[in-house]
Amino acid sequence: MSDFKIFKNWLTQVSFLTEKDCSLFEPFLKTKQLKAKDYFLTEGKICHEIGFINQGCFRTYYLADGKEINTHFAFENEFVTDYDSFLQEKPSKYFIQALENAEIVTFNLPALQNAYNQSQNWERFGRMIAEQSYKLTTQRVESFLFLDGEQRYLDLLKNQPHILDRIPLYHIASYLGLERESLSRLRKKIAGK
């Protein structure tokens, strides 16, 4: 199976991209292998690529007073990038780290812009990715504005239960804005109901 087959299958299933559109883009794709704990991006660097995850999972985090604050987890058939840094070619405020051995298919901004120029379908795809990025950011911000820690945890259980199988609890606690001990108490309380 081609390294790009998973990505091409995903593209044609979730969007309006044709086999021809994918063939146009394939010469610009690269496959990368990352080991657990390797970094896709570090703070202060420009994010030059978007990665589609064939295998593995990643976390995005930033440092606040020396403490790691997780903001996002990405899994198979999802993208990993700092979209703002990627589009504006500005230094990132984030770290993106593989939590498991991973394989990703990457492409850069010139390749994407070239595809936009050659196909309206790729322009639509770019808009779809931008809308998804906006939606994730809005959901994240609103969860902290309108939900307490318990509600954020229950929301995670309902909408992303797979995270609990693959992400260490201390990372999940940080993601939810909780101390590790608070998350443990919360889990016991909910399990007891």
Itemize the secondary structure elements and their pairings.
Blueprint: H1 5-14, H2 19-25, E1 30-34, E2 39-41, E3 49-55, E4 58-64, E5 67-74, E6 79-80, H3 83-88, E7 95-98, E8 102-108, H4 109-118, H5 120-146, H6 149-159, H7 163-166, H8 169-176, H9 180-191
Antiparallel strand pairs: 1-8, 2-7, 3-6, 3-8, 4-5, 4-7
Helix pairs in contact: 4-5
Defining key terms:
4-stranded antiparallel sheet; 9 helices; alpha+beta; 193 residues
Terminal Cα separation, in Å? 47 Å
Low-confidence sequence ranges? none
Q: How many helical elements?
A: 9
What spatial order of strands do you see in the largest sheet?
1-8-3-6
Plain-language structure description:
The chain has 193 residues and is α+β, with helices and mostly antiparallel strands. It is 49% helix and 22% strand. It is built from nine helices and eight strands. It has helices spanning 5-14, 19-25, 83-88, 109-118, 120-146, 149-159, 163-166, 169-176, 180-191; strands spanning 30-34, 39-41, 49-55, 58-64, 67-74, 79-80, 95-98, 102-108. Strands 1-8-3-6 form a four-stranded antiparallel β-sheet. Strand 4 and strand 5 form a beta hairpin.
